[in-house]
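We modelled the chain as a single entity of 452 amino acids. Its sequence is:
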Amino acid sequence: MMKVNELWLSRDESTRLATLSRYKTVCSPSEHALEDFAQLACEIFDLPMCLISLVDQDKVYLKACVGFTGLKSLPRTESLLGRLLPSNQVTIVDSHEETLQFSGLLNTTILFCAGVALITPDGHNIGSLWLMNDQSTDFELKKQSLLMKFEQVLIDRMGLWLVAAEDAAMRIQNVKLVSENERVVEKISHLMDYHQEISNANNVLEGVLDSFEMIFQQAPIAMGICSGADKNIWQANAMMEKSFGINIVGQRLHHLIVEINGDDFEKVVNDTYQQAKPFQAKEAKLFIDLPGEKKHIYANLSLQPVGRMGDEPDNIMFIIDNVTEQVFEKQVMEEANNVLINAIEDTDMGYTIVEFATGNMNANARLKQNYGYAPFEAFNYDDLFAAMLPEYRSAIKAAVEKAIVNRSIYQSEYQVRWRDGSVHWIRGYGKPIYDANGKASHIIGFNKIISK
């Protein structure tokens, strides 16, 4: 992964521009196919926006846009879209300043971008493929590797268009040579070369299809494809088989998934097919009918009409992310928290969660009362230390810092002065909570009034 560099010109810009001119010409009538690539990228990586661009000398051509419309090209400036991304790595853009540039250029809210350079087989950087989101996104290394493979498939397909276009030009030249008797032999040679190149192109096409199959099969989420009319599943990847424990190819999707959140799933699939509109549901309750087993699971579900695939009829791609364990754990944690809070209230102890960054506290009535505050009054971390007698403040802060460093529970006893002037002893306990980077973000605290 690499942050955006100040990359503007390649080492051999004139040759790069000449190569770009060839690709730009053949891509123009094929933009509908590039849109299919962009749509497929959004589905595979579960992100709402994708952009495929070609970077010319003075202009950036937006050849495929998914998630926003209205733009065909932009002036090439020192913006992110005007730069040539480094090859063989994914460029991540997630800082506010950098994503703000994207938002301004594309006239939509963007908080995350992952880009990869489009590198031709002869090593020229002609543009970029960008995935974008309107919220912060964790784009792990496995997805970055998959994005680089996806770029290779895309550039292979663009190369096929180039071969086909140049082959067509060669055919026109060959027709002209027919009338020139002195060049009959050369014409025959061209025709033989043409047939050989077609054979090579067919071999490349087979490789592209194999690459698509590899991406589909190795995707880190359960994916399948069914026909739209009869909902017959004709392809499913390894993660789908692992998720259901059986090979589901040949079954009808609405027979496998009978209900979604208590509603008829067949109607949902029919609506997706007939209206040609995607369908998504998060943590949906699915009723699954497997051979010898009927059960409910929770899953993030996506249905996406994908149009025609070669000679295949209209299809629906479906993605199922089984989150049953996560939903159950969340429910258990919520119930456990409710039980814990009730138990704390019964023991008449003060309870709080403090956010270190802001000093905001979520405290129960008893904790506020322990510092001389009424339950309805606002109370924060600064108020807590203000109520504490001065001689205890440094020691308590040191004890909290020690607990953070040692990842331990802090215990303390100290005196506080209420606003009515009375002094009271408090015994307190606390446990720091850490974020994904290991930094202490909150502390959970308990305390009670004691007598000494």
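As a brief sanity check on the tokenised model: The radius of gyration is 31 Å. The first strand starts at residue 49 and ends at 55.
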